[in-house]
Amino acid sequence: MVSFTVYKGSKDGSIVKSTTSKPELADDQVLLRVTASGLCGTDEHYRTADMVLGHEGCGVVEAVGPAVRHFKKGDRVGWGYEHDCCGTCDWCLSGRETFCPERAMYGYADLDQGSFATHAIWKEAFLFALPEELTDEEAAPLMCGGATVFGALHMYGVKPTSRVGVIGIGGLGHLAIQFAAKMGCDVVVFSGTDSKKEEAMRLGANEFFATKGVKELNIGKKIDCLLVTTSAQPDWNLYFSLMTPDSVVFPLTVTGGELKIPYMPFLSGGIRIQGSVVAPRLVHKQMLEFAARNGVKPILMKFPMNEAGITKAMKTLSDGDMRYRGVLVPEQEA
Ligand SMILES: NC(=O)c1ccc[n+]([C@@H]2O[C@H](COP(=O)([O-])OP(=O)(O)OC[C@H]3O[C@@H](n4cnc5c(N)ncnc54)[C@H](OP(=O)(O)O)[C@@H]3O)[C@@H](O)[C@H]2O)c1
Ligand SMILES: [Zn+2]
Ligand SMILES: [Zn+2]
């Protein structure tokens, strides 16, 4: 039996410390000691659920099951939103296991484990070796936030010549600016106020527009690709007029309700709306290599991995004060 500490959501939103116990490692299972975990906007959605939180994990391998082939004790690894898939359906066979009907993802499967914890046990095939160029703390936010924005840019035909808009400079947005800039794109950033302007330009933006209270935006050349990384849906009327014909909008925001868009600009401009969820493993691996090679790194605020630290990090995020990704680290390192 293996037991470890985990931190869960609860009905009233308070963070609850608990213990998860699992049988001895079997087959391709890997036991990790968590060294860092990002706090993603999506964790906020599960704060009132009775489940272990956190899905941007990094850690060190402590033990491996008998069938593990590629990792050994002491290796640095990360994991993200997806923990398992069937491996045989058309989606899995074509490297798009994020759409597998049997996918095991955060929020729906393996609710007794997450990255807000001292340890976790995952299948070898869903772990990623961490590049030397990134510390565990720097790699953690890439496991969901980084993979999500890189996936959208990389999988759907965005070119180095594209003019790329990013709305919302949070965990995802500040990585999207860096990835798009390092891909060579012309990056245009939209943010509520001017307060993040300097940082956005430093991260690689060419132009910056504050949007609060603005009814119309005049940005000159129109946009080929728009990544929506806000925590709520934006005013679509404001943005559809900025899109060039045959352009693509990526709504990455997780939210309930409906997507209501201005119909005629969508139709007459031949604009595509492309949903996207994290990234399949090949793209995730390519994202890590790209980040390591090009110096894409999150800007972090560190918090201790305990009830108070997680609560404080979540408050900082919901108050809009996170710059730009919260990372939970084991108490003695905080
Ligand atoms: N599709 C996927 O696979 C995927 C993966 C991960 C996360 N997500 C989702 O992506 C969204 C962003 O995640 P995140 O971790 O980057 O969150 P975050 O760090 O909170 O960033 C969100 C940003 O949105 C802006 N914002 C805040 N409140 C807003 C409001 N009421 N209306 C409009 N904009 C607001 C802020 O940017 P400014 O200050 O610049 O305005 C903020 O920094 C969340 O909805 C999350 O659940 C989706
Ligand atoms: Zn996430
Ligand atoms: Zn499958």
From TrEMBL:
Signal peptide location: none
A Pfam family matched in the record: ADH_zinc_N
Stretches assigned to the Enoyl reductase (ER) domain: 9-328
CDD domains for this protein: CAD1
Keywords associated with the record: Metal-binding, Oxidoreductase, Zinc
Gene3D superfamilies associated with the record: Medium-chain alcohol dehydrogenases, catalytic domain, NAD(P)-binding Rossmann-like Domain
InterPro entries assigned: ADH-like_C (IPR013149), ADH-like_N (IPR013154), ADH_Zn_CS (IPR002328), CAD-like (IPR047109), D-isomer_DH_CS1 (IPR029752), ER (IPR020843), GroES-like_sf (IPR011032), NAD(P)-bd_dom_sf (IPR036291)
Highest taxon listed in the record's lineage: Eukaryota
Single Gene Ontology MF annotation: zinc ion binding
Keyword Ribosomal protein: no
Cofactor(s) it depends on: Zn(2+)
PROSITE patterns registered for this protein in UniProt: ADH_ZINC, D_2_HYDROXYACID_DH_1
Family, similarity comment: Belongs to the zinc-containing alcohol dehydrogenase family.
Protein name: GroES-like protein
Annotated organism of origin: Glonium stellatum
